[in-house]
Write a structure and sequence with these properties.
The complex is a heterodimer of chains A (110) and B (111). Chain A is 0% helix and 59% strand. Chain A is mainly β and 110 residues long. In chain A, strands 2, 5, 6, 7, 10, 11 and 12 form a 7-stranded mixed sheet that branches. In chain A, strand 5 (31-38) and strand 6 (42-51) form a beta hairpin. The model of chain A has no long low-confidence stretch (mean pLDDT 94). Chain B is mainly beta and 111 residues long. In chain B, the strands form 2 sheets. In chain B, strands 1, 3, 4, 8, 9 and 10 form a 6-stranded mixed sheet that branches. In chain B, 27% of the residues are buried. Residues 1-6 of chain B have low confidence and may be disordered. The chains are: A mainly beta (110), B mainly beta (111). The A-B interface holds A 4, 31, 35, 38-45, 48, 50, 56, 58, 90, 92, 94, 97-104 and B 5-8, 32, 34, 36, 41-46, 49, 89, 91, 93, 97-99, 101-104.
Chain lengths: 110, 111
Amino acid sequence: DVKVTQSSRYLVKRTGEKVFLECVQDMDHENMFWYRQDPGLGLRLIYFSYDVKMKEKGDIPEGYSVSREKKERFSLILESASTNQTSMYLCASEDTGELFFGEGSRLTVL
Amino acid sequence: GESVGLHLPTLSVQEGDNSIINCAYSNSASDYFIWYKQESGKGPQFIIDIRSNMDKRQGQRVTVLLNKTVKHLSLQIAATQPGDSAVYFCAENTGGFKTIFGAGTRLFVKA
């Protein structure tokens, strides 16, 4: 079974703090994604990566950056967290169109 | 100030009945469609998919119907069980890297 692991399930940060969300997949997938999920808005794509050191902006990249130094690891970075970034963050890897999601990281920014 | 999110469409069914969850997709160029199920506290999980050259596909207790003329997708769950209670998302893909998700429908199963 594919396993996508997000290291932090729940985080509470203060406005202006730098936040790292880590994601690791164990199936050697090329493509990895970060989404945020908000009630009634579905999943919105922040960034994705199709190879090591490669990244592409999704639909809502503002305020975020990503890092893909190794194939299995895709990190989401909030350089200076703001309250409107309070959300559920979902990492996924992809194989032939099917997305495999982690359990999610619920971030609260105070 | 306080922000108010949009309310999810909800569907409430009696245990044992069939459920039909509907979805309108946006891009006529989309050629791959997927339904995901998200249980409370978990990430979405793949249920079933269908490609644009088909109009129906069946899995175990689930059927997906695709109507390309009106850009409509539906998920049918037979003999709905309490374990089917979740949020269901339809998703579309045009063959590139981006999958576009719908807002989701919350399914409640009454015992």
